[in-house]
Amino acid sequence: MALTGIQIYKLLPQTNCGDCGVPTCLAFAMSLAVGKAELAACPHASEEAKTELADASAPPIRPLEIGTGEKVLRVGGETVLFRHEKTFVNSPGIAVLVSDDMSEEDVDGRLERFNTLEYERVGLTLRADLVAIEAVSGDKGKFEALAGKVKEKIQGGIILMSDDPSLMEAACKVCADCKPLIYGATKENMDDMAKLAKEYGCSLAVKGKNLDELSDLTAKLTEDGLKDLVIDSGARTVNKAFRDQVSIRRGAILKKDRSVGFPTIAFPCEMADDLMKETLIASMFVAKYGGIIVLSDLQGHSLFPLLLARMNIYTDPQRPMAASPGIYEIGGPDENSPVLVTCNFSLTYFIVSGEVEASRVPSWLIVVDTEGLSVLTAWAAGKFAGDAVGIAMKKFEIADKVKHKKVVIPGYAAAISGELEEELDGWEILVGPRESAHIPAYLREWKG
Q1: Residue 35's pLDDT is what?
Q2: Quick one: pLDDT at residue 411?
Q3: In this structure, are 99 and 226 located in the same domain?
Q4: If 25 and its partner were Cys, which of 12, 233, 291, 363 is the partner (CB 3.0–4.6 Å)?
Q5: Same domain for 207 and 235?
Q6: pLDDT reported for residue 203
Q7: Residues 296 and 383 in one domain
């Protein structure tokens, strides 16, 4: 049961040293009680206090890792029902399903798409995270061979799927160093699957026929020392799966029910016979509240929008999405090409760069660091002022790339033109359109 702030305070050193970043131990205890701080921030907490406070300071949804190295997937760790309350923490993993009864051609195609379908967006690389390997044939040799093939060909996490402990053990021996997720433990095979999870140090997925059975299974497994669990309520219709996801999240966060305080796994691949329908269902799980989402296949036209939805939902709402500051070359510009300036608010950058590209006029686009604020907001906050823009242009050495000295600023930032002229000696400041839709016409009339 969660401790109150006062109960936590009594277990702290009570030195008010401030080493945790908070002025007093009482304030730190209050932050711990509501999940806004981590116990690790206190360097002076005793081992006894750490043990007693572990449950109180842990997030309602237990965090865990699947895989190793750079491609490790972190799921769980959530503390809120709605992202505007604080933020969502670890975005759900997207998995593609392969099985040991598929043709070699089908398996190779899915693995190739898993490796190659990735997209750059706002400085982030968006891609799928996991390959789920399902034992369908019942042949231990085939399952083991497929696990070895997947391990060799991909850079990502692995889910091993079988309800037969003997098949699971064979695959675990092949993939143990990859730290796969074992799926899954049921009422019938729970003891054997738990033994494998402990032996190979893997996370274990637990499947119940309903939420009540699921809670019973996780309670028994945690008592047995297994804490890195992923849960599946067993629902395979959209309505029931949605209701279960919400019930699990509400139970963990509002009712502090530790028996459901684990990331979930969802199977849109078993809820539709069409990839686009799967993608639509998967987008529901991205929002409410899938930890791992398994698809039957990966195709660019369906995966890309799903990855974008995931990125948008799991962006901290208190920190605007921002493009990286710098000089962007659009259309292969040369020394006579126009120079435009904009802010690094992600939406503004993509709209402006898109209109510049649509103009078919090769251009230089300077993106100024405005801490993710839009042009007007940044100007009002003093972050898109003449001196800031001038310093950015000097830093990025745009004068070495063009022989003219003309720069186009956004129409809504016309007020900074005088200050920018003072900052950039000899430069002519041109005020561009107010609306981005007018940029193509403006650039077509450009004279360097």
Answers
A1: 64
A2: 93
A3: yes
A4: 12
A5: yes
A6: 97
A7: no
**Rg over CA atoms, the chain:** 27
- What does the block give as tokens for 143? 């399952």
Domain residue limits at 167: 64-313
CA 39 vs CA 20, 28, 47, 95, 262: distances in Å: 9, 9, 11, 33, 20
Residue 171 lies in a domain: yes
Domain boundary among 284, 313, 342: 313
Do 279 and 377 reside in the same domain of the chain?
no
**Matching residue, tokens 């993993």:** 93
